[in-house]
Amino acid sequence: MKIGIIQQANSSDREENIQRLQQKIRNLVAGGAELIVLQELHNGLYFCQTEDPSLFDQAESIPGPSTDTFGRLANEENVVIVLSLFEKRAPGIYHNTAVVIEKDGSIAGKYRKMHIPDDPAYYEKFYFTPGDLGFHPVETSVGKLGVLVCWDQWYPEAARLMALAGAEMLIYPTAIGWESNDSEEEKMRQQDAWITLQRAHAVANGLPVISVNRTGFEPDPSGQTNGIQFWGNSFVCGPQGEFLYQAPDNTEVEQIVEIDPARIEKVRRWWPFFRDRRIDAYAYLTKRWID
Predict the structure, then answer these.
(1) Is 150 in the active site?
(2) Confidence of residue 270 (pLDDT cuts 50, 70, 90)
């Protein structure tokens, strides 16, 4: 199966960002892409660097303008698209939501980000209510997509639950980068940890992983920090954690990567981690801490 990924540097001009994404989607479809994954909150800037109530105005309903726009494109191009949107669910309830658009333009399903960070320059708890849809793959014409979002990447429980529910791949729209005060050594430790852990999800669950990050520099409007340099490095790896593609850190990318879904069964026969799980001994995983 051919998967298209788009690593983009965004500006404050949302319409221009969307137009560029649409053209890149068309380019990838022309190259044979059957599934296209976009980065986290792809329509605009990563607005969570500050806590600003006016920014809630950027949120939209689902279905809404973005699902309509990209739905028409999916239908025209006969492609499945994974979107990442700022969802307005109800007054005072907003989510960071991934939406899967089927080839006919319909909404195949959605996932609301479950793990919400609250760190300097990543003030997501101010904007996003934690997800309440659980960890369920989205059934599509190209397979069962285990869609998670960014901070979910750091939690093996999320990847495992998606795999146990039948996901045939793990997909992570992402917005992560460096704050310029960090040393070069610390920056590399952070980036290496991010890549290593997601490759570990692939190995532990015998699934391909598709991780699509932003690139480019986005200043902090408040001036409290030096802004974020998003580190790109979008990648696709196979079910043994092997790299199938890895993007550079500071360049926009539109790339087709081919994966072999049949390798899931082969790898799980070689490495039967699911067979050997001691589910009788894992009850404490539902505890915050074991005293």
Answers:
(1) yes
(2) very high
